[in-house]
Amino acid sequence: MPRKKKSRKIGQIGTPLAPKTNRKPAPASPKRNKKTLGKPAGTRNNPEQTNSQSKPNKTVKDPRVGSKKPIPLIVDNKPKAKVAKPKFFSPAQELESIEQNERFALLLEKLDSDVALTRDEKAFVNKLTARHQELCDLLGIADEDDSPENSESSAENDLYEQFESIDINKFK
């Protein structure tokens, strides 16, 4: 088998093309639309104006995503702490907690000594005294000042009626 000698000349590789003037035009393929991912650049800061022009009565919605809650620029010195309301299993426990409340006791001492209370302190005292009175009425506890001495015998006779009058739904 004869061998060909290597040469540095570049010959034609493959078939030669016809001149451009003689070529047939390639069939025009329909252009494919690229799939777009997301919105075009700048839409966050430039809301669409076509929607606002077509519906002038509708309120303009802010297209930006995120929290609209205003951030306070000035820090208050008074932190607002939410006090969790304790849940009681019985009215007796709630009455006991009201009677053991130190703040309530101090404010009652101020009232007894005729010291002026602030609006918040007055509201707190009024709220707790009203709740204390409700619980005393519910449990059948009468004030010592208001009850006459003969009430012991009448209370013993009416124990069954008091038991019947208690509404159990209030304890749930």
UniProtKB/TrEMBL annotation:
<comment type="similarity">
    <text>Belongs to the YihI family.</text>
</comment>
<dbReference type="GO" id="GO:0005096">
    <property type="term" value="F:GTPase activator activity"/>
</dbReference>
<keyword id="KW-0690">Ribosome biogenesis</keyword>
<dbReference type="GO" id="GO:0042254">
    <property type="term" value="P:ribosome biogenesis"/>
</dbReference>
<dbReference type="InterPro" id="IPR007336">
    <property type="entry name" value="YihI"/>
</dbReference>
<dbReference type="Pfam" id="PF04220">
    <property type="entry name" value="YihI"/>
</dbReference>
<feature type="region of interest" description="Disordered">
    <location>
        <begin position="1"/>
        <end position="77"/>
    </location>
</feature>
<comment type="function">
    <text>A GTPase-activating protein (GAP) that modifies Der/EngA GTPase function. May play a role in ribosome biogenesis.</text>
</comment>
<comment type="subunit">
    <text>Interacts with Der.</text>
</comment>
<feature type="compositionally biased region" description="Polar residues">
    <location>
        <begin position="43"/>
        <end position="57"/>
    </location>
</feature>
<protein>
    <recommendedName>
        <fullName>Der GTPase-activating protein YihI</fullName>
    </recommendedName>
</protein>
<keyword id="KW-0343">GTPase activation</keyword>
